[in-house]
Amino acid sequence: MKKLITLFILLASLTLCAASCSHDLTNTADDTDTGTADTAETEQALTREEARAIFKEIITPTQKDAFILNDDYFYTNNHLGRTVHFFGEQVDDEGHTLRYMADLDGENETVACLKEGCAHNDMTCPAYTQYAWLIVQPDGSDEIVAYTVQNFKNQSSNIGSINVNPGIDACLFEYNITKGIRRCISTDILTSDQVDAYCNGFIYSNPADSTAHFSDDGMEYTVTYTMKYLKCINTATCETRILEENGEPLHVFMLGIYDGRVYFIDDSGNLYSCAPDLSEYEFVRCIDEEYTFPVAPHNVNDGYIRDNILLLPIKDHSVPVEDAPAGDYDLYRIDLSDSESEPELVKKHVNYMSVVYEHIYYVSTDFTEWYEYYPAANESVLLPERPKIE
Question: In degrees to the nearest 10, what's the CA dihedral of 304, 74, 191, 312?
């Protein structure tokens, strides 16, 4: 019995250190000489109260070891700025995914976890999740950081062999894969928030509600989107703020970052900019009075800023809505450094655009032509085949 108690104390100490939101996972190697069989036996010995204590440590937001970028660079779910390839493989019937990482050439494949002795089979493993990651790696940096929203609503979370009901909706986790540090950023988040973008220490979320409109015969329908809010979470202070006016959230679509300001557009085609922490905003110009929000917000880059150039797909209003394909836009570029400049047409009949490893792509409405676009030169190059877009 004494041996079992000693083993449990050792495991609990290691688990709290390794899975804690505020401790370095790489400093546990010297203390992990317990055999696999003994470890499994100790995990079975966990009580529900002990598992809850471990879980509470995992989901407690902390400001320690905050990862801050100072290059004012903007990262999106389309992997901008990454030099490492991340992919997932489903590991159980509940949709949990184990994340792997490799060089872009496919070499040096490994699980994205530095936790010594980790079994990669429950939530104490940083690479074990069922939700998409936002990957951050700035140019010139050797650190890779991942953000993910872990949903806990209406489900239990496994710690060892114990199921723990956390009583919260979700947590936003930050995992510095290079340093092996995982911490909770916020519990003030919903699964629908996801993590759409990151810039200079702020996480941005911009969820939308969708409404289907069926035709009279019920055979066809169109979908309209209403943006719910624009939220930011400060990764250093763990503070949350929503862009508001008179206490009510503004229904806007985030486009990107330029000159230290966050740019967004409303459903009247008005372009605005605001402070990175969303504490204030100002009107910039009206781009399109008949602007409509994207068909599938954030599934692709439906608006994107590179340096001073805003790329924005806009519907051709000369074509009746009932006659226009769902994915038929005209792609325009707008020079944000010149308030008097008019939107300039890049290409008509574009389905969507995407950004992968800093390359900007767009595809024709009928998916027969793929282009790579260079905003500085305002040039499009027709590609011989479809690019690899994940």
Answer: -10
